[in-house]
Amino acid sequence: MPIFIRHYDDQFGSDARATARSGDGDALVDRVYAHLSPIYDLVFGPVLQSGRIAAVARLALEPGHHVLEVGAGTGLNAALYPTSCRVTAIDRSAPMLEKARARIGRRGYRHIRLFEMDAASLTFPDDSFDRVYAPYLVSVVTDPVAVLREMARVCRPGGRIVIVNHFRSANPILSRLERAASPLTVHLGFKADLDLSPVLARAGLKPLSIEKVNYPRLWSLVTCLKN
Length: 227
Ligand SMILES: C[S@@+](CC[C@H](N)C(=O)[O-])C[C@H]1O[C@@H](n2cnc3c(N)ncnc32)[C@H](O)[C@@H]1O
Prior knowledge:
23% strand; 227 residues
């Protein structure tokens, strides 16, 4: 199977619609990641890798599983998937996907395919994937609830939805700092003060487990089951 990036309507036919949003939030995200793409791996690679490893373990992958990775960025998770699985990975940033394409090409991964797509309007049919995984995405997107609803929609009943992300701390001092820092961190590509519980509740997701990951343990690994 060739390794490729292509626009999703090539693959999913006439039902697929170009749904990229053009709001200010998305434009800011696009600008930030276009600038970050050359240095992303250096800044956010090794420092967040133990969280990625723990998250892929929570996917509990079995041979033949089809995984959707949402917000794949430069492809830092690519090496973590067994070649016995199929992985469809999407991101809305062309410069980030270009890095992912190069990485996947260099390593010769034929089980991973990449699409440029918006996470808030996935063009896959309902119940398409065994596992849906969002690494360090949810606090980046302009509409986290819409993205989580889309992730749940495309996951098959009984499938797993795994999220690794920084959320607002329960510690009141840290929480205040995060709130104060958030207007600045958006320029680094994420909001520092997103509340986990209301976002999950509004998306209709109930966590099976929530674990702390990375060092310091400021990131949450959330595993949900689709009923
Ligand atoms: C912090 S990076 C995470 C990259 C990678 N998952 C990792 O483990 O490092 C966030 C990624 O989400 C992407 N992104 C932001 N908003 C998006 C959206 N609405 N749809 C798809 N991708 C989006 C960005 O382009 C960026 O590549």
